[in-house]
Amino acid sequence: MSVVGVTAERPYEVTIGRGVAFGLASAVDGCARVAIVHPRVLRKQAAALGASLDADVTLLEVPGGEKAKRTKVLDAAWRTLAEEGFTRSDAVVGLGGGATTDLAGFVAGTWLRGVTYVSVPTTLLAMVDAAVGGKTGINLPQGKNLVGAFWEPAAVYCDLDFLTTLPLDDLRGGLAEMIKHGFIADERTLELFEADPAALLDPASDALAEAVERSIVVKAGVVSGDLREATSVGSRVGRELLNYGHTLAHAIERREKYTWRHGYAVSVGVRYAALLSRNLGHADAAFVERHTAILGSVGLPLTYEPGAFGELRASMNLDKKTRGSALRFVLLDAVAAPFVEVGPDEGVLEATYAELAG
Asked: Looking at 165, 181, 216, which one is the last position of a domain?
């Protein structure tokens, strides 16, 4: 077991290990009522966690995946808390993937203007991404996460035992974010993938456990320095650093109507960012090839549909990093050497996409 501290307005700890989910009891000690927000597939696990608590427990079942992040689900959650008499001294727990924890965190942050929230992520992607950083939110028909708030958890429990039942494609999706973390901040993570990529696809391996911890350390360090994502300038890159590869990734997700796994879109987006870094005269060819080799070694996608650039480019204007009409890309000179490119040449953007799709 290991513990990673996150410095924020309300500091908290991320506990990583096998069987650590039952540490939840200490995080909600003293709360008379606890709501556990969970998808149907985790009904048994939610009941087991609830039984371990010295509190009146409400099991709040929500749809799986992004369907949880809808206004009608949020409204139903609020109404349940009202009916059960939840007060400001009670707690909300998110048990599930990133969509579930995003919703649960937003419920906690908005109920009575904020109650205790604890995150228990059960997917690899949620552990290394959504569970750490305090971003919460729901979706609208016009786009993902358009309504949300920053609300830090009181604690996060990343129980690696949950990964043993995770489908392989879901595991791969989480690896994409971990590879991204390696390129933006941690050479050792990249070395783990290069040494034995098969081990990173094994939920029981020590290599995966180490890589998960390192990835969480990267994310915790970035968000501790820039909780609310101030605008980055040049090589002074704050929380925006975590968006490496996400400008194209988000456009792909919108084009696919969110049927692509987030990590798969991130994989393509990260490779595009590496190519763009090189084509703008920064990174070298070996740096690009390292992206391609590592992503490909664990079966992640490397290309996207030829001829789709026009639609994707229009969608990029909706990216959260865009300021006014200026498109912004987080790029790299090398591993852990980021910079922000504002308004890159449109011809280079299109040529880079043609190279990616080709």
From this structure: 165
Q: Which of 117, 150, 165 is the last residue of a domain?
A: 165
Amino acid letter, residue 190: L
Is residue 243 among the annotated active site residues? yes
Q: Is residue 181 flagged as an active site residue? A: no
CA distance 270 to 32: 45
Give the side-chain half-sphere CA count within 13 A for 298. Answer: 31
DSSP string, 18-40: TTGGGGHHHHTTT-SEEEEEEEG
Q: Is 229 a catalytic residue?
A: yes
262 catalytic per annotation: yes
Helices (H), 187-243: 187-195, 197-200, 206-225
Concerning whether 113 is annotated as a catalytic residue, the answer is yes
Within 13 Å of residue 154, how many CA atoms lie on the same side as its CB?
Answer: 22
> Is 135 part of the annotated catalytic residue set?
yes
Which residue among the candidates 33, 239, 261, 271 is catalytic per the annotation? 239
- pLDDT tens per residue, range 258-313: 899 999 999 999 999 999 999 999 999 999 999 999 999 999 999 999 999 999 99
Specify the CATH number for the domain of residue 191: 1.20.1090.10
